């Protein structure tokens, strides 16, 4: 292969010589191949966890008195634990950075690869190892602590023996989360260095596309926050094995201390989940409106201030733990300051539509659904940041709906939109646009009919993590609507995943470089990109979303645009 | 239906005011944003508007939509704090009912020493502030009465550290659901009880009656009285049904398998075994059950009385 560098990355690779087929992917340090591998792994886990969610909703279709039981009561705890462990640690935390960040971050800044390609592959392996441990941990041992591992329950619940061999499912899972954390930290460092050192000529910080900005803010959070939770989870493992008392009050420990340490990571983690999707939406909307994003700088700065303030508000998850009233008031106050940059972003995206030339592509539909769902997610967050209302709503279905609105209706919808946006660039194939839109319709309607009733359920007092519920008419009705919503949603998810697989294996071959006519750099590569991304050294002279200049370049033949727009 | 809008406690008004304030603001924002999106999608559709503008931003507008939300959230913050401080400051003259939680039961101790548990629920007089110290014997639970807008985690504390507390003042007669709101193991969803609110005179009459009944039973059948007041019946039935623990019916003299230090062994239930089971519940675990029985503070006479009662149930 003399001319490997100018061939598509799908046909040529830099992996060791002996590798072919599967191994040439598994051993590949190419950021594009790594991104694709993450996509396959993550969406498979996602689908498995969706099925668990579907069963949990089915379980709640009828109240306790009906005798309806889909999931035995001893297993319900393991169901929501496995569901959440997969969704959080294996799907949405690696999320958009792992799939699209890996693939497009170097492309967006004109680099050949990330700064440390081999470390990047190591991150992926750590991810797989941690994922397999976490899933087997729950499946074999039935850990049921939830993804929050609240002690002393998580310290005192017994290990389970399978075939006579003692298996400490909880320690096993905590170790898995620790390993996953390492993968995340390494990816974060890798991206930060890439952004600092590998931007092409002329690509100043304020010439970077907003997806890159969001990955940048996210990476800092990953590097600074993940070590805290890593150590904290290890402390629980230690406490389970040797008799020291960090968190178990029976041994003089403090269970609330654990919650502080846990949320010091896990609150920033919710921004790790959402920021990259905000970045994707900031790409999709200008492209499909054919005009500059409204307030580029304030969106970039808002990303960073969300990351900054997001680090200081962890204890708003703990207003009912009995921490001091002063702390509660302080954390409530700070919490409202994260609402402001978030609101600014939403207003900026919406304003971008004004006087645009809007095309409702599948990616655009998901981005618009993102804005709608995420607005509900953000607004319901105010009910939880305000002290007196949080006391009532905490640990009810209101919270469950709130975080699904942000993490699923927001982050995951954004990620799915991003995959539709970049699908042909990554694969050289085009999916069925019609079916993608049908899938979107099911997902959007199903999502809202599943989770809106849960907001109301929470207001009426339905606690979370309940296997059944007392026979109260308002509970019965809302649970029923919500369950039916889950059927529509799951149908939508299946359609979307099917559209992707069908596109990949049966879709129309395409080499069109810039199908949506986007002004950012990643679209100026071949479809699919060549091994080292760009054939020649680039120099950036204009703002990333200057569509007027972009149209001029297309006319002059210096940039590639779509001919059909 | 127990969840209702009528102010069932003195907190409802504050909490619900905050709730509706945020709700109205949210609806306005959501309708505004969604309305604008729909309008733009139609008006500036590629067919209708093939030539986009190159508008890059508008500093004035951005300042406006930074300042207005800042002011709004400060209002929300203020009202939230107000309602919260009320929940944290217990009136001087509050009556104290001790709440104890364990996997998976509640126990309520009244000022006169009367003890009741999950099945009976908590009974309180209306229009009287009730102070509730919250003690957990095992893991974290959470005391939640949705109708009163009251919630506080019941956190186990190291020796010498003060327990969490909460308080409420019911303003409506009726029975209201009491939930455990923090996941505490398999039967978390069964850790449900009731709060019964009576008028002050009714409450006094109820308390006198219950105390007298309990004393009568204590004199006549002390074992039975203790199994009720100490909460044994939350986990042990007297009619053969299997609850969290084995039934007391037919227990004495029965042959069963227990697990001691991980080893199965056959035993016949006699007085020595019962005594050990009650005083050191973690020693022998009946096969097929989880080691969930808490060690309860009982004197030797009380244990003896309970054993008599178990014998009686096995005749
Ligand atoms: C069709 C899709 C989904 C369905 C039907 C679903 C359903 C559910 C249900 C029924 C619960 C348990 C509520 C309870 O008993 O308290 C739950 C919990 C949860 N879900 Fe989902 N979910 C879905 C997707 C997602 C996604 C995409 C994410 C994250 C990105 C997610 C994250 C979580 C988390 C973190 C919990 C909390 C579990 C806990 O309490 O420890 N879910 N979900
Ligand atoms: Cu509980
Ligand atoms: Cu519970």
Integer tally of domains of chain A: 1
The CATH architecture of chain A? Up-down Bundle
CATH H level, superfamily name of chain A: Cytochrome c oxidase-like, subunit I domain
Question: What order do the strands of the largest sheet of chain A run in, or round the barrel if closed?
Answer: 1-2
Question: What attributes does this structure have?
Answer:
heterodimer; A: about 575 residues; two-stranded antiparallel sheet; about 0% strand; B: Helix Hairpins; Immunoglobulin-like; Cytochrome Bc1 Complex, Chain D, domain 2; 3 domains; five-stranded mixed beta sheet; 6 helices; binds protoporphyrin IX containing FE
How would you characterize this protein structure?
The complex is a heterodimer of chains A (565) and B (315). With 565 residues, chain A is mostly helical. Chain A has one domain (2-556): Up-down Bundle (Cytochrome C Oxidase, Chain A). Chain A has helices spanning 21-26, 31-59, 73-92, 95-109, 117-141, 153-156, 169-197, 210-241, 255-289, 296-310, 325-353, 362-385, 387-393, 397-427, 433-459, 473-506, 547-556; strands spanning 160-162, 165-167, 429-430, 508-509. Chain A has a two-stranded antiparallel sheet with strand order 1-2. In chain A, a hairpin with a 2-residue loop joins β1 (160-162) and β2 (165-167). In chain A, α3 packs antiparallel against α5 and α14 (397-427) packs antiparallel against α15 (433-459). Chain A starts with 20 loop residues before the first helix and ends in a 9-residue tail after the last helix. The mean pLDDT of chain A is 91. Chain B is α+β, with helices and mostly antiparallel strands. Chain B contains 6 helices and 14 strands. In chain B, strands 1, 2, 3, 4, 6 and 9 form a 6-stranded mixed sheet that branches. In chain B, α1 (12-43) packs antiparallel against α2, α3 packs across α4 and α4 packs across α6. The radius of gyration of chain B is 28 Å and the shape is elongated. The model of chain B has no long low-confidence stretch (mean pLDDT 90). Chains A and B meet through α3, α9, α10, α11 and α12 of A and α1, α2, β8 and β10 of B. The structure holds protoporphyrin IX containing FE (HEM) and copper (II) ion (CU) (2 copies). Protoporphyrin IX containing FE (HEM) binds at residues 50, 53-54, 56-57, 80, 83-84, 87-88, 91-92, 146-147, 400, 404, 407-408, 412, 464-466, 486, 489-490, 493 of chain A.
């Amino acid at each position: 292969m003399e001319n490997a560098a100018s061939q598509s990355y799908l046909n040529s690779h830099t992996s060791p010589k002996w590798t072919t087929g599967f191994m040439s992917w598994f051993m590949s340090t190419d950021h594009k191949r790594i991104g694709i591998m993450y996509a396959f792994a993550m969406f498979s886990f996602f689908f498995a966890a969706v099925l668990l969610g579907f069963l949990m909703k089915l379980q709640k279709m009828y109240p306790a008195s009906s005798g309806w039981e889909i999931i035995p009561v001893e297993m319900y705890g393991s169901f929501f634990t496995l569901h959440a462990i997969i969704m959080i640690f294996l799907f949405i935390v690696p999320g958009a950075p792992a799939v699209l960040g890996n693939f497009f971050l170097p492309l967006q800044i004109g680099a050949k690869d990330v700064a440390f390609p081999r470390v990047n592959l190591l991150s992926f392996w750590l991810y797989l190892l941690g994922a397999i441990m976490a899933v087997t941990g729950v499946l074999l041992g039935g850990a049921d602590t939830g993804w929050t591992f609240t002690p002393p329950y998580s310290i005192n619940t017994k290990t389970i023996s399978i075939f006579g061999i003692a298996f400490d499912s909880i320690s096993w899972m905590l170790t898995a989360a620790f390993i996953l954390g390492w993968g995340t930290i390494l990816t974060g460092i890798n991206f930060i260095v890439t952004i600092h050192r590998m931007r092409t000529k002329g690509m100043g910080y304020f010439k970077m596309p907003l997806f890159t900005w969001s990955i940048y803010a996210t990476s800092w959070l990953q590097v600074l926050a993940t070590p805290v939770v890593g150590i904290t989870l290890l402390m629980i493992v230690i406490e389970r094995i040797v008799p020291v008392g960090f968190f178990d009050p029976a041994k003089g420990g403090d269970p609330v201390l654990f919650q502080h340490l846990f949320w010091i990571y896990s609150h920033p983690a919710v921004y790790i989940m959402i920021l990259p999707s905000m970045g994707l939406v900031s790409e999709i909307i200008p492209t499909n409106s054919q005009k500059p994003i409204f307030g580029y700088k304030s969106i970039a700065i808002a990303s960073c201030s969300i990351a900054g303030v997001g680090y200081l508000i962890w204890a708003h998850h703990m207003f009912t733990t009995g921490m001091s009233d002063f702390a509660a008031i302080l954390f409530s106050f700070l919490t409202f300051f994260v609402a402001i940059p978030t609101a600014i972003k939403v207003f900026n995206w919406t304003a971008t539509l004004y006087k645009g030339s809007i095309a409702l592509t599948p990616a655009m539909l998901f981005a618009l659904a993102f804005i709608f769902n995420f607005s509900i997610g953000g607004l319901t967050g105010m009910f939880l940041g305000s002290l007196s209302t949080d006391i009532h709503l905490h640990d009810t279905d209101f919270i469950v709906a709130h975080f699904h609105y942000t993490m699923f209706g927001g982050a995951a919808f954004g990620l799915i939109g991003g995959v539709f946006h970049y699908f042909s660039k990554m694969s050289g194939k085009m999916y069925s646009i019609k079916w993608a839109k049908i899938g979107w319709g099911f997902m959007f309607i199903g999502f809202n009919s599943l989770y809106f009733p849960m907001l109301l359920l929470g207001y009426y007092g339905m606690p979370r993590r309940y296997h059944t519920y007392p026979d109260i008419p308002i509970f019965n009705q809302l649970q029923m609507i919500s369950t039916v919503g889950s059927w529509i949603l799951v149908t939508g998810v299946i359609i979307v995943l099917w559209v992707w697989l069908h596109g990949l294996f049966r879709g129309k071959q395409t080499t069109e470089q810039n199908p949506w006519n986007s002004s950012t750099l990643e679209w100026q590569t071949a479809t699919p990109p060549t091994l080292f991304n760009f054939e020649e050294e680039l120099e950036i002279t204009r703002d990333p979303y200057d569509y007027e200049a972009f149209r001029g370049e297309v006319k002059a033949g210096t940039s590639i645009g779509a001919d059909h727009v | 239906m127990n969840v209702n809008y009528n102010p069932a406690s003195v907190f409802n008004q504050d909490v619900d005011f905050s709730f509706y304030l945020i709700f109205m603001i949210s609806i306005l924002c959501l309708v505004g944003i969604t309305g604008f999106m729909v309008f733009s999608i139609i008006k500036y559709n590629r067919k209708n508007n093939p030539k986009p503008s190159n508008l890059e931003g508008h500093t004035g507008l951005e300042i406006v939509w930074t300042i207005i939300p800042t002011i709004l959230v400060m209002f929300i913050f203020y009202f939230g704090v107000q309602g919260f401080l009320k929940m944290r400051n217990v009136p001087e003259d509050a009556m104290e009912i001790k709440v104890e939680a364990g996997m998976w039961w509640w126990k309520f101790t009244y000022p006169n020493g009367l003890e009741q548990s999950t099945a009976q629920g908590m009974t309180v007089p209306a229009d009287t502030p009730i102070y509730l110290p919250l003690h957990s014997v095992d893991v974290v639970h959470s005391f939640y009465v949705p109708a009163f807008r009251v919630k506080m985690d019941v956190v186990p504390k190291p020796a010498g550290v003060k327990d969490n507390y909460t308080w409420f003042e019911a303003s409506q007669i009726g029975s209201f659901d009491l939930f455990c709101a923090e996941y505490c193991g398999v039967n978390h969803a069964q850790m449900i009880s009731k709060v019964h609110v009576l008028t002050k005179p009714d409450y006094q009459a109820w308390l006198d009656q219950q105390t007298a009944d309990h004393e009568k039973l204590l004199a006549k059948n002390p074992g039975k009285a203790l199994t009720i007041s100490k909460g044994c019946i939350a986990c042990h039935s007297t009619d053969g049904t299997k609850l969290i623990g084995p039934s007391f019916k037919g227990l004495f003299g029965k042959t069963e398998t227990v697990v001691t230090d991980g080893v199965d062994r056959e035993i016949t239930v006699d007085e020595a075994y019962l005594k050990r089971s009650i005083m050191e519940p973690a020693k022998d675990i009946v096969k097929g059950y989880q080691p969930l029985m808490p060690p309860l503070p009982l004197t030797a006479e009380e244990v003896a009385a309970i054993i008599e009662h178990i014998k009686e149930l096995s005749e």
